[in-house]
Amino acid sequence: MTIDRAIHEKLLKYIIEVTFLDKDAIKDDTLLFEEGIFDSMGLLFLIDFIRDTFHIDTKDSELLVENFASVNRIAAFISKRIGVEESKKLVISGK
């Protein structure tokens, strides 16, 4: 499994757990906010998950639609922020 795929899987697993939706209900490009899957509180919990899981403090300037619209966009944001070396550590540690 690639590092980016591992990030994607952890993120998708979290979203499924907190929304109680079936795995098939959320596609990689599903617009999470436009579809009503997440609201502003969901975003706050998502940011906490990202901080706790990937050790990323999201800046206010990063709270943009292009960073959080879908699973793919969130995973890309996380990958960009932590870089390849940090990604490897997270995958190896199993967090």
From TrEMBL:
PROSITE patterns in alphabetical order: CARRIER
Domain Carrier: 5-82
Pfam families: PP-binding
Family matches, as InterPro entries: ACP-like_sf, PP-bd_ACP
Name used for this protein in its record: Acyl carrier protein
Organism from which the protein derives: Ancylomarina subtilis
Lineage: Bacteria, Pseudomonadati, Bacteroidota, Bacteroidia, Marinilabiliales
